[in-house]
Automatic annotation (TrEMBL):
Source organism: Corvus moneduloides (New Caledonian crow)
The name this protein goes by in its record: Surfactant protein D
Gene Ontology, cellular component aspect: extracellular space
PROSITE patterns (alphabetical): C_TYPE_LECTIN_1, C_TYPE_LECTIN_2
Gene Ontology biological-process annotations: ossification
Location within or outside the cell: Secreted
Database matches in Pfam families: Lectin_C
Amino acid sequence: MLSYSSYILIALAALLVTCHALSKCPGMSGLPGIPGRDGLKGLPDSLDAERPNASVNLKHRLFRLEAVLALNGKIRKVGEKMLASNGKKVDFASALQSCEEVGGTLAAPKNEEENIAIMDIVKQYNQYAYLGIRKGETSGPFKYINGMPLNYSNWHQHEPDGKGKEKCVEMYTDGTWNDKKCNMYRLTICEF
Ligand SMILES: *[C@@H]1O[C@H](CO)[C@@H](O)[C@H](O)[C@H]1NC(C)=O
């Protein structure tokens, strides 16, 4: 909450800005009389009332923006995630970098619903994609980029078969996974 004196400052600032804009400032020799509390009645209410409206308006605009992007196939929403591709085929490191540069990471399906959403993009571009999953430098199991263990997988039959030499994972157009070398050219799909 703003203090009472803050409202007076805001009111004064508003008065000065307005009067300068209209070139109708009262004589500024000495401060204008400070209005009593009654003079500012209603100001706090109107200030508070505008904030929820602005936030509702913003949500509504974002909702419409997302709908337009989804309609054009630019983004896909699944749960709290948003998925998008730049349509580029690059190696694993470059794909991860382009996602991180814009505040996301390489898409990694955490459940079947997310796997299907990523598969839809793979199908849309008809290109296999790298997933945000890899083996550590030394071997060990496949993990998410942030080092967490997998809690969902959708390996193709007989995969992974790289015996540790294929440290990255690609998604086929049927949504199944295959372990793959990290220096191939695969579609970049990011999650946000
Ligand atoms: C795995 O964990 C994530 C949360 O970290 C959750 O969203 C997801 O549904 C889980 N997947 C399964 C198959 O339980």
